[in-house]
Amino acid sequence: MLDQAHMTSLFENATEGIILTSGKGFIVMANPAVRKMFGYADEELIGKPIEILIPEKFKPHHNELREGFYKKPSNRTMGHGRDLHGRKKDGSDLPVEISLSHYTRDGEMFVIAFVIDITKRKEIENSMLLQKAELENITGKIRQLNADLEIKVEERTLILKEALQKLEQSQEELSEALDKERQLNEIKSRFVSMASHEFRTPLTTVFSSASLLAKYITAEDQVKRDKHIQRIKNSVNNLNDILEDFLSLGKLNEGKLEAETENVNIKELIEQTLDEMKAILKKGQIFELDCNNDLVGFTDKKLFRNILINLVSNAVKFSDEEKAIVIKGKMKEDNIIVSVIDQGIGISDDDKAHLFSSFFRAANATNIQGTGLGLHIVKRYIDLIGGKVSIESELNKGTTVNFTVPVKPNKK
Predict the structure, then answer these.
(1) What's the longest Cα–Cα distance across the chain?
(2) Residues 336 and 396 in one domain
(3) Residue 132 lies in a domain
(4) How far apart are CA 58 and CA 28, in angstroms?
(5) CA-to-CA separations, 354 to 20, 223, 387, 389, in angstroms, rounded
(6) Do residues 289 and 325 make contact, with C-beta atoms less than 8 angstroms apart?
(7) Are residue 90 and residue 214 in the same domain, yes or no?
(8) What is the pLDDT of residues 296-329, one digit of tens each?
(9) Local structure of 401: helix, strand or coil
(10) Chain segment 137-169, per-residue pLDDT in tens
């Protein structure tokens, strides 16, 4: 029942290298990114010891480190405060960053390594060192010229000041590029950590329920079978939701999504969407719709539905049983304002400023299923349809999310 195509796509199309090793240190799986990174063909790495990717001078010490890790395993995030190198098939060194994760299956421990090629970062760092040396050299020349050419001090100072400004600007640009690259690696690391955490729970549930199903073989066990089948369905739905968030973010970042806008009856579209979502309501929860029949907006139907599904799902998820989820629609000037209102756990003032950031989870929501991508994706979708979004919330009293839909095409 698990969407194998999504899982395979995630593994095969990841831009970071992913290696799975057995408890004895042999390579079980290696994705295309890692094979390309180290210069190996499709099946050349499978069954080989992990030391095939370690430079010769580090191999003896790496054996000790690997044995120590297996005796006392612990996850390690990107960076980890030291320079690491891998060995390509042609024997050349490759600067890398590696994060490690592990799990146990059928009594055997498996280790997952996520590998990033940081060759570009090292080039940037070396370039910055050269720029710094050049900057120091020019600074020395300035002092010498000021001492030797007092008559032309203003003219010389101006010329060299401009050169210095250009070099400083170049250094700032290099620093910004390095900061952006580090931020990207931090986001990737958070993605790896989030994906590992969010996938582990539903996969464990699927595995345990599937194992228990085999034990219930009599007609009297049907209730127990139904219970575990439902648990498997719920876990698969969670996995699909997580994958959809990751895939949506990827499409947005690659610029593959564009709004296909048309005139849409907003009330009809909301009613259709809510009707499809009734199955996710908790016990006693209801949808209340307050919207005029004649509200016609200029928007993309699919993106609007995705926005509404995300916001309503959050309202249901963060609200208790017996609580109403209110959806309102009203006209204001050249926009339709759609509001999703719940009586849930609310959001603290400290967290409000970060709600639309990727992978952000509010402090009071860490124990509730989610990737931290939903509101970030909602904000990107609303930007695509030419709208705006705002949030009003108070802890333990509920949250209102308002977003706008233009009633006519935006002027470009």
Answers:
(1) 105
(2) yes
(3) no
(4) 22
(5) 34, 44, 19, 14
(6) no
(7) yes
(8) 999 998 889 888 988 998 899 889 999 999 999 9
(9) strand
(10) 888 887 777 667 677 767 777 887 887 788 788
